[in-house]
Design a protein that fits this description.
Blueprint (H helix, E strand, L loop, with lengths): L7 H10 L7 H8 L3 H13 L3 E6 L2 E9 L1 H24 L4 H13 L3
Antiparallel strand pairs: 1-2
Protein name: DNA-binding transcriptional regulator, MarR family
Organism: Paracoccus tibetensis
InterPro entries: HTH_MarR-typ, MarR/SlyA-like, WH-like_DNA-bd_sf, WH_DNA-bd_sf
Length: 113
């Protein structure tokens, strides 16, 4: 993601924001498996670059919403395509069936308490 000026965490954040309704920051951190302070650190540079905006929640003045901007959507499309291409290249370099086995194993690990 370096060519796009993004970390993997920022890419995950932008993917989570690519929806019609902006999520509340408080709900997004657990969804992404991030500490709230880590999420805040990821948000600041993206906000400065104009890729997302932080706005007050009209239903809860104490809460803030994160919205991806049109510039953010454009960059996300490019970065996601590069990510897919890189993973397809990696998958093709591995023996048949191994990529699926690796993903299944990682999914099992992710489900551990």
């Amino acid at each position: 993601m370096r060519p796009f000026g993004l970390t993997n965490g920022q890419l995950s954040l932008m993917m989570a924001l690519n929806r019609s309704e902006p999520p509340a920051i408080g709900r997004l951190a657990p969804f992404l498996g991030m500490d709230p302070s880590t999420l805040t650190a990821a948000v600041k540079p993206l906000s400065r670059r104009g890729l997302l905006v932080v706005e007050p929640d009209p239903d809860d003045g104490r809460s803030r919403l994160l919205r991806i901007t049109p510039e953010g959507v454009s960059l996300l499309r490019e970065a996601a395509e590069a990510w897919r291409e890189a993973h397809a290249e990696l998958d093709s370099a591995l023996p048949a069936g191994l990529p699926a086995e690796l993903r299944d194993g990682l999914a099992l690990l992710a489900d551990l308490p």
